[in-house]
Structures are given as C-alpha cells and as structure tokens.
Fold this sequence. Notes:
Elements: H1 3-9, E1 10-13, E2 18-21, E3 31-32, E4 34-35, E5 41-45, E6 48-51, H2 52-61, E7 68-71, E8 84-87, H3 89-94, E9 111-114, E10 119-126, E11 129-136, H4 139-153
Antiparallel strand pairs: 1-2, 2-3, 4-5, 5-6, 7-8, 9-10, 10-11
Amino acid sequence: MTPERLKELVSYDPESGVFTRLKITRGAHVVCGNLRLDGYVSLYLDGKARSAHRMAWLYVYGSLPETALDHMNGVRHDNRICNLRPATRSQNLQNLGGPYKNNKNSGLLGVYKFFDEGKWQARIQIDGKSKSLGLYKTKEDAFAAYKAAKAEVHPFCVRPI
C-alpha cells in the first residue's frame, strides 16, 4: 500500500483516529474498520486486511516505520496519531498494562507464587532476560518492588500499571 493509494481510498482524522471511505456508499461516506478479537482495528483495502494503526502512520508520515508501533495508552483501537509511536518489540512490551494471560496465580504484572515457601517472587524482563527482584511475604510487597524496578528500567512505559 502506498500513501497515495491509501489517500485515494480513505480519509483519516488524526485527532479521532477514524478512517472514512472516500467512495460514497448508499449516499454517504462510511466509517471503515473492523474491531478484531485482539482489540486492534483492521481496514479492508484493495482486498487485503491492514492494521489501522499502521495505515494511520502511513497516511500521516508517508511511510511505515521499520519497527512496530506502540499504542502509548495501551488501547489497541485508539488510532489517534498522538497515541502512536515507533517501538522495538522490547519497548512495546515495556508498555504492558497487566499480567500475561498465563500468569494466573497472582493477577499482577511481574509477580509470581514462589514454590514450596509460600512467598511471592517479583521478576522483570530486561532486554529479553528475566531478572528476579527478590522474594516477598505478600504479593502486594512483590508488586511494589516490581513497580519500583519498572520505573527505573522501563523508561518507555508511560501508563500506570
């Protein structure tokens, strides 16, 4: 998709993040985009599904970033240009707002039940490697340690956890 072709098909409002088809359908311009199960919006353009956040970037800047795009506020369907920024995979993962789906034992990002001792372990990812932040009596204490470390080593994260 080229920026020129994109602008032939849709208009984009950078303040709302909404795409509108330029071709009139049933007497009106139609907002386009489908909300996917993973929370992102897809646009169907020229017979192919395309990520709306990447198309927003292409529309405004004329090219796609070489890296991924991060939704700074963590809302995957918020495609306002002010909410998008280029990010490496590592940076994008710094902006997680909650625990991974497979972390069912604490419900808190970075906090895991430590086996056989009844304690909670705080861990953080740094450059793709897991680092232990220690063992704590309560999961709240472990989460406090995680949040303190995150503020220090994950500067890309802009939203509260």
